[in-house]
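Moderator note: this is an archived Q&A kept for reference. The question asked for a predicted structure of one protein chain; the sequence and the answer are reproduced below.
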Amino acid sequence: MKTKQQTLKSERRSKAVISIVLAIICVIYVLPVVTVAVNSFKLNTYVKTETFALPNKETSAGWSNFIKGMTFGNYPFMKAALYSLVITLLSTGLIILFTSMAAWYIARVNSRLCRTIYYLCVFSMVVPFQMVMYTLSKTADQLKLNTPWTIPIVYLGFGAGLAIFMFVGFVKSIPLEIEEAASIDGCGPVKTFFQVVFPMLRPTMISVGILEIMWVWNDYLLPYLVLDINSYRTIPIQIQYLKGSYGTVDLGATMALILLSIIPVIVFYLLCQKYIIKGVAAGAVKG
């Protein structure tokens, strides 16, 4: 039998191996971001030839890539950033509000119809976007959902599956007696939800919000298919149009805009990542 000291040594070795493996995985994930950051300060020529080298006096472009990227073409970068912000905030707000109400109803009524709707929402999570994108594009155009103020309705449909899945799990963990007490005090269903249940959904609400914000902000395909790109562009679409004559691409300016687009999401995620784990864990109590 192993002694206590041998067991401790074995545990330390296991932890060391796990730490090394996780460190390697972390480097693999961080390397693309670091590469983008490094190349955003290089001249276009050296981005192709010295991709992984640090900028020096010969290869450095300073802040010129950022200035060029933000002033390139006839479409202002700040306008694209504003549309990205509007779409992201409106979409996230709609998803949180409507899916939390739907999840509460599904969890509390628990009828055959509600269970069917729940499973359909869960099933929608595994349906590839490419299967419906052409039909969706035509339908959105017919219903006039092709503006930054209406495309959040489309995002609501695509984001509802994951959000309802998480909210239903959390609602089931809330004691029913709390809602019954509110009902005895004279609260109707609407008042009970917004004054009692909705504040209690905060952990999952934050988790859903973080995940949806990261998805919508970085999304390229849906806005490209639905929006009129001559009038409305998001940041990913604007980056695609950083082309000069004969289709040449300024990689330095492109890297600079990519860095500007991912910095807000990275900072936001780092500040809120603990809430993701709390929300997911809370929603998994009674899934």
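Archived answer notes: The mean pLDDT is 85.
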